[in-house]
Amino acid sequence: xxxxxxxxxxxxxxxxxPRSRAATPKQLLNIFGEESMIQNTVKRLNGLVDEKNVFVIxxxxxxxxxxxxLPGVPADNIIAEPFGKNTAPCVALSAVIVNKMNPDGVILxxxxxxxxxxEMLFKETLSKAADFAYRNDxxxxxxxxxxxxxxxxxxxxxKEEEVEEGIHKVETFxxxxxxxxxxxxxxxxDFFWNSGMFIWRxxxxxxxxxxxxxxxxxxxxxxxxxxxxxRFEDVLTNIYGQLKSISIDYGVMEKxxxxxxxxxxxxxxxxGSWEAVYQLSDRxxxxxxxxxDVYTENxxxxxxxxxxxxxxxxxxxxVVVIETDDALLIVNRNExxxxxxxxxxxxxxxxxxxx
Amino acid sequence: xxxxxxxxxxxxxxxxxPRSRAATPKQLLNIFGEESMIQNTVKRLNGLVDEKNVFVIxxxxxxxxxxxxLPGVPADNIIAEPFGKNTAPCVALSAVIVNKMNPDGVILxxxxxxxxxxEMLFKETLSKAADFAYRNDxxxxxxxxxxxxxxxxxxxxxKEEEVEEGIHKVETFxxxxxxxxxxxxxxxxDFFWNSGMFIWRxxxxxxxxxxxxxxxxxxxxxxxxxxxxxRFEDVLTNIYGQLKSISIDYGVMEKxxxxxxxxxxxxxxxxGSWEAVYQLSDRxxxxxxxxxDVYTENxxxxxxxxxxxxxxxxxxxxVVVIETDDALLIVNRNExxxxxxxxxxxxxxxxxxxx
Lengths: 355, 355
Hints:
The structure is a homodimer. Helix content of chain A is 33%, strand content 26%. Chain A contains eleven helices and 17 strands. In chain A, strand 7 (155-164) and strand 8 (167-174) form a beta hairpin. At the A-B interface, strand 15, strand 16, strand 17 and helix 11 of A face strand 15, strand 16, strand 17 and helix 11 of B.
């Protein structure tokens, strides 16, 4: 069994403005520690997936930086989609590429910008999922055992019967719930967080794409043909222009009857906002995270990061302060989701230098 | 009658950090409008005091900038104290200088960093005070009719009997009161805000200095002698080194029985903190003051000023945000007084570049 990893790195991450920009979204930032999230994502696969079998699907703006950040991954494996079309086209593209190289190949489809602690447990889970996917004509997704009634994640309900140890058929997918529903989900024991991580053989996902998304399947076969030739880029641009923007969850996972869930018990976070970064950081005795040249007084529960400029904060609570070379953000932690509104505002004002 | 103005401009204004610095304290900043507070202070005297009769007592760090900001005032009139010794030595120095030029001269002693609206009324009050001081061997201070129970100002109680229209003898001086006391003061009708503005003949204040502060009076006579000669600077340094640091209020005003209060009914503010600046600024419908390239969302009652950097503020209330080239301040308006602690911290850390 040969394992391939496809890392989805097309996100623009506007919720991490002003650190994230179009050319340097969340996955390229070192939000935690020294290395970027995509570097950590690749490193985490060490021992399970050979770097030559790692593919990254990204866009033209980010490609060069990713090549630079991942010197061990062949530059040809870092592929820029000509247009962002959500996850289904990205999955189909990666499936035909791996399929052409190795029809038996098992693909781990992984987001570039998630935080995973307990790396051993993560790798064991992936390994078991890959083994199951190799032996079965099935689509496997990792469901994270929920540790709190989180309303920021989608959920997956499993069927009761265990197919193999820790693996169940999926009953249904659920959107982000309200708090009461989330509490019910967590209490039930059969709902798991939708991690957006998928494991399948390339032919298994292609078969399901053929069945549920023929409008994507048929054109993507032309890309399969062109892959590895001079025509690849032109064909990709031509085909992508015609594709609908649609998620793999909606297009296949929620419709197929071959979907399995493997339980993930490792510590996982999709790091969806500055609030998540705050929650995941080490705090001092006042609940503050201070990175850079920072003075605080009577300040609690705050995340304060500056790149250069001495920053003094007095008498505030629960704020995130992010200072970069050209911009400054001050946001209440409870409203961290609204940071994307700043990016929308800047787009409206055509202030490209800040986006 | 010849009127002189002595503008006291020695303050370091650490409560306006990061805009105020040792070399550019509050009085040299254009906190309101286009011109600096000291420029407004001089301009406000137009028609009452000839610019050649304006003196500024400052320190060595600020002198050059003041000369630059006040091109109409003779550079020789802008005098640097060798050491900061509070207001009594400053008053004595100005008294001997004016006295040597014109023993009859009336001196208006004015802080450089106060905001005064109703300029006509202000000038009328000064004019009346100067006239009274010229005719009487007395020390006149302006008491501002209080409009609210302000706890940030000292108060002056007047005696009931009116000596001339709007002029009363002073009963007593009171420190900054607590809120209950301030309410009582305002209700009483005989307490006024201590503006720190004084009007007297040079010989009148010198007589009172001789009586109440001989340790200051005797040495300052040497400065009188040296003024206008080559020896002035050396003598000033030598004498100032020996002087005690003491306020004119404590040294003379609270002890002399020649002190009169003239009522000031003009709009006055000593602009003691960023909170005062907020209160004195025009606000938008959300109670915000935004100066510079600023985006706000769900933000109320805040003062946000940046010099260059685009600033986004989301979901906060009652904060002051000041961004300069090399520093950033975020402070709750209610704790605006504590900004000086940042300067103390920076001094302790010997970070001269930020002070």
